[in-house]
UniProtKB/TrEMBL annotation:
One of its GO terms (molecular function) is ATP hydrolysis activity. Keywords: ATP-binding, Cell membrane, Membrane, Nucleotide-binding, Transport. This is ABC transporter related. It comes from Verminephrobacter eiseniae (strain EF01-2). Residues 24-262 form the ABC transporter domain.
């Protein structure tokens, strides 16, 4: 089995002015679905703030409302009660153009338009805005392709001809086309092999630092969480039960957290990086030591 390499420490959030407003501010959020006997509550008086420069990982069990919360931050879904504010604006009132210039979203499987080539996928939101001539839109899309490590030669390829890692890169370039300060990632490394997942995490770290992005991601993958997040927020029991560094959160007593962090994968992801100094020639092979 191939395993991922031990992650480097995540980047520190960019320094902020003491009175800087949060990039994302969720207050008193209630989300209810269904009616009558079928009604159920997903979020119950949930609070969350995300400061500029953070890379926040949202974790929680299946059905705990992580994706619904991302959609509410993006303005695609409205809360039943409470406020979701993004860069000082109510998320639900941003409109499509406003949302694209403030928030970039990387959907779990890339969600590329299969009938459009790479360039047209990346350029889509900028072209739809209709404010720039076609050649500048094309140049902007090529710059974004380069930013995510793709070549101009990839621009004319169709999504069906791309590897999983390339689909993620194109989707990332598309999410960044309007230079949004906030990037939302839904399972950024899902479906990638360990080496491609490591490469994609490295790219996200570079772009986070180079562009001064604020990132909110949903991930079930502990390697990704440890590689990227400056803070982890845990959704359980319909609210945010704890937030802190990955290591702080891992020690919080809650059945979901124990299950999530304390399994074999969690222990491996939290283990210190292996020491790579060569063994002395005379050292016994490990399987001979206990005879
Ligand atoms: N538009 C909707 N109408 C009705 N129910 C919905 C709607 N959207 C989400 N739900 C329900 O809300 C709950 C939370 O869904 P959500 O997709 O946010 O969970 P999640 O935490 O992202 O789960 P997973 O980790 O499995 O993706 C689920 O029970 C889901 O079926």
């Amino acid at each position: 089995m191939t395993t991922r390499t031990a992650p480097a420490e995540p980047a520190e959030p960019a320094p902020m002015a003491a009175d800087a407003p949060p990039v994302v501010d969720v207050q008193g959020l209630w989300t209810l679905f269904g009616k009558g006997a079928e009604a159920f509550t997903v979020h119950q008086d949930l609070q969350l703030t995300v400061q500029r420069g953070e890379m926040l990982a949202l974790v929680g069990g299946s059905g705990s409302g992580k994706t619904v919360l991302l959609r509410q931050i993006l303005g695609l879904a409205r809360p039943t009660r409470g406020q979701v504010t993004v860069l000082g604006h109510p998320a639900a009132q941003m409109g499509r153009a406003g949302a694209a210039s403030r928030v970039g979203m990387l959907f779990q499987h890339g969600a590329l338009f299969s009938a459009f080539n790479v360039l047209d996928n990346v350029a889509f939101a900028l072209r739809e805005q209709g404010t720039l001539p076609a050649d500048l839109v094309r140049d902007a899309a090529l710059v974004k392709l380069q930013m995510v490590g793709l070549q101009p030669g990839h621009a004319s390829r169709m999504p069906a001809d791309l590897s999983g890692g390339m689909v993620k890169r194109v989707a990332l370039a598309r999410a960044l086309i309007m230079d949004p300060p906030l990037l939302l990632l839904d399972e950024p490394t899902a479906g990638l092999d360990p080496s491609s997942a490591d490469d994609f995490c490295a790219l996200l770290r570079e772009l986070h630092a180079a562009l001064g992005l604020t990132v909110v991601m949903v991930t079930h993958d502990l390697d990704t969480l440890f590689a990227l997040s400056t803070r982890v927020a845990v959704l359980a029991d319909k609210k945010l039960i704890v937030s802190g560094t990955p290591r702080q959160v891992a020690h919080f007593k809650h059945p979901f957290i124990t299950h999530f962090f304390m399994g074999e994968r969690g222990q491996r992801a939290m283990a210190p990086a292996p020491i790579t100094a060569p063994m002395p020639a005379a050292a016994p092979a490990p399987d001979q030591e206990h005879h």
